Amino acid sequence: MNVREEVVDVLRGIGFDAEDLEDGRDLGRDLDIDSTELVEILVALEQHFGIDIDAEAEGGFTTFGDLVACVTRLLPAAAGRG
Amino acid sequence: MPGAEALTGPDVPDVPGVPDVPGVRAVGIDVVGIGRLRAMLERRGQPMLDRLLTPAEQALCQGASAHHRAACLAGRVAAKEAVRKTLGGHGAGCAWRDVEIGREPSGAPAPRLTGRAARAFENAGLSRLHLSITHEAGVAVAIAVAV
Questions:
Q1: Helix, strand or coil, per DSSP, at residue A27
Q2: ipTM of this model?
Q3: In angstroms, what separates the C-alpha of A10 from chain B's closest C-alpha?
Q4: Chain A residues in contact with B77 (beta carbon < 8 A)
Q5: Into how many domains does chain A fold?
């Protein structure tokens, strides 16, 4: 399972449909994710992947693809800590 | 919480909803489902609580009942978002904990801004925040007025 598939899996666990989770989908307009729900998603991703997502980065997430890119970027650092 | 929309007075004088009151620069409002937030916090535990609320806010919301605690937490989350909306574009990148909602001796909520939120407040040319929180029918609502 690659990173994108794992991110989809995490969001499925929160209640999203996998077929809705395309990279270009806007988190607010397309997926109806609000600010508190985004926090839950980020914490779920942190817990699943063992990464730390900067709280100040929250406003930079516009699309589902941004979430995948963030996890992909942070995973090597998490692996280095392990 | 629905998408954030802060209405800033001087820049958009004809937009409905902007109070025609001298000195009012921006208004922010937000609503949080108490049960929904409680369920999120139960699913994600302390890490989610720590991302949303400062230790002082968490301590403030300790209460005799789980319902009281959930309502207090939801009120604080709504208030933070309402305050962030008053910052408009200046507030981009503000973390949740950059806006702390304390309590005055009178019981009134007392916003305290730090980090990016404090800088955004200054950059927006704001001088004071007024904040009110209410809980009813399973939701917490907060409104912030910036002057």
A1: coil
A2: 0.85
A3: 12
A4: 36
A5: 1
* Fold (topology level) of B7-12+20-146: Ribosomal Protein L22; Chain A (3.90.470)
Whole-number Å distance between alpha carbons of B106 and B84 = 24
CB-nearest partner of B48 from A43, A58, A59: A43
- Closest of B103, B122, B123, B100 to residue B113, by C-alpha: B100
Residue type, A43: V
Select from B40, B84, B94 the residue whose CB has the most chain A CBs within 10 Å, as the one to mutate to test that interface: B40
Pairing relation of β-strands B139-146 and B26-33?
A: antiparallel
In this structure, what token pair is assigned to residue B64?
A: 């005799």
Of A36, A42, A55, the CB nearest to B1: A36
Selecting from A37, A47, A59 the residue whose C-beta is nearest the C-beta of B93 gives A59
Cβ-defined contact of A43 to B44 (cutoff 8 Å): yes
- What phi, psi does A66 have (nearest 5°)? -65, -40
Q: Chain B residue closest to A34 (CA)?
A: B1
pLDDT at B8: 45
Q: What three-state secondary structure class fits B12?
A: coil
Q: Kindly report, residue by residue over A16-51, the tens digit of the pLDDT.
A: 999 999 999 999 999 999 999 999 999 999 999 999
Query: Do B83 and B144 touch, CB atoms closer than 8 A?
Result: yes
Q: Which two tokens stand for residue A37?
A: 């729900």
pTM of the full predicted structure? Answer: 0.85
Range of the domain at A70: 3-81
